[in-house]
Amino acid sequence: MRLFHGGIKLTEGNELKERAAEEHIHTLAASTLYLPLFVQKRSLCACVAAGDRVDIGTRVAEDPSGFLPPVHSGVSGTVRAIDTFHPCAEGGEVPTVVIDNDGQGRACLLPPLAETAAPDAIVERMYEAGLVGMGGAGYPTHRKYRDLTAEWLLINACECEPYLAADASLSRHFLTLIVEGVHRMATAARVAPAHIRLCTESAQTAAALKQSGLSVVTLTKRYPQGSERQLVEAVLDKRLPDGVLPTQAGVVVSNVGTAAAMGDAARGLALTHRIVTVSGYVKQPRNLLVPIGTPFADIAAAVQPKTADRRVRYIAGGPMTGRRLTTLKAGLPKTCGGLTLLPSHSFSATPCIRCGACVRACPSSLLPFLIEQAVLQGEKERYRPLRTTACLSCGCCSFVCPAKRPLAARITAAKRELKEGIQ
Ligand code: SF4
Ligand code: SF4
């Protein structure tokens, strides 16, 4: 049995997840896109001006530092504004490029990538096409693959969050694209075909992926199996020390959605759309192919809540690691593969009873209750000895805590403080 240390078995949302995976992919046409000029704490520069006409694939914003790849329009139309402050999914209001869709669907393409393209040319295409990790972290793909020589390439189709089935749906409907992307990524990372593994927890997704002729690993269903470090541990039996990235251990991990985006990029299409599962407290879950920048309100309108008489919370992503949206006006980011509706509820935390459940569940072998105690007592000097930066923000500790303590949120905030050097 292939397992990683810690983690939890989730049952919530499994039936809806299966139903969503079986669903067709519906196309959603947005009338207006909202593309923020502040992403992952970096200011982007607009490459267009108000009044400009754009096509699908037109570059509309770029990071002057070159760290993040460019952002492209997912519709053809006219730029209404480039500096309007608008809510964004990362929180707050930021300058935003607003594009009105003219419904004509004009597209501009990059030249197709040569079959024999060398690693440098593939990495350059990753940048030009705007690729970032589609599994949630959003790390720029060109930076991950630049000057890389790895032994293993793991394609992550685990999607262990409850309810979400965007990767399952992608694997079943866009296999050719995924395979093209995987081969390009393997070339870029100089990985031999025999060292590529497609990884999933779902027997149905495994059956679809096996048609690719590539090696498929079916893993035990356990959360957070989709986390890079847990995937490396389960598939290759390598436990990475704190601070060591998979690439530093000879393993490059990419999400199956990123592989499909690479397949598109090789054909000349920039990353302008993605599949989103809308699920949770809904009558029928749906998978939608959506232009990036589509307001969450348009995505939410594609489903009906189970009953109209209950208040719902909207989560960008899944219930474990997603972010609660305070407004549905924000545009869909590249990294978000789900919109989960959950009934509103309130509960209060009670004192820790030292049961140890959070310790047993933590896949990073941390002591969550002690880190939370350090946070509450303002003892920042204890963050490092307690290995706070090794937290994956997976939410397992909060999920199992019988006292309903918001451990993951507090530990994540402490980790952010340490990383930003506030201490
Ligand atoms: S959120 Fe952090 S502390 Fe909590 S279980 Fe996950 S890795 Fe461990
Ligand atoms: S799971 Fe909750 S109650 Fe149990 S030790 Fe951890 S913080 Fe305390």
Verbal overview:
This protein is an alpha/beta fold and 423 residues long. The chain has four domains: 14-23 and 111-267, Rossmann fold, CATH 3.40.50.11540; 32-100, RNA polymerase II/Efflux pump adaptor protein, barrel-sandwich hybrid domain (OB fold (Dihydrolipoamide Acetyltransferase, E2P), Beta Barrel), CATH 2.40.50.100; 275-281 and 288-343; 357-419, no CATH class. The protein has 13 helices and 19 strands. It has helices at 14-22, 119-128, 141-145, 166-173, 175-189, 203-210, 228-236, 256-267, 296-300, 357-361, 368-376, 396-400, 407-419, and strands at 25-27, 32-36, 38-39, 42-43, 45-46, 53-54, 59-62, 71-72, 77-87, 93-101, 152-156, 196-200, 216-218, 251-255, 273-280, 286-291, 312-316, 323-324, 338-343. The protein has a six-stranded mixed sheet with strand order 1-16-15-19-17-18. Helix 2 (119-128) packs across helix 5, helix 5 packs across helix 8 and helix 11 packs across helix 13. The longest helix has 15 residues, at 175-189.
Give the proportion of residues in helices.
25-40%
In what order do the strands lie side by side in the largest sheet? 1-16-15-19-17-18
Number of domains: 4
**Helix-strand makeup class:** alpha/beta
CATH topology assignment of the largest domain: Rossmann fold
Number-wise, the strands total: 19
DSSP helical segment count: 13
Uncertain parts: none
Rounded average pLDDT: 93
Gyration radius, to the nearest Å? 21 Å
Give the amount of beta strand, in percent: 15-25%
CATH class of the largest domain: Alpha Beta
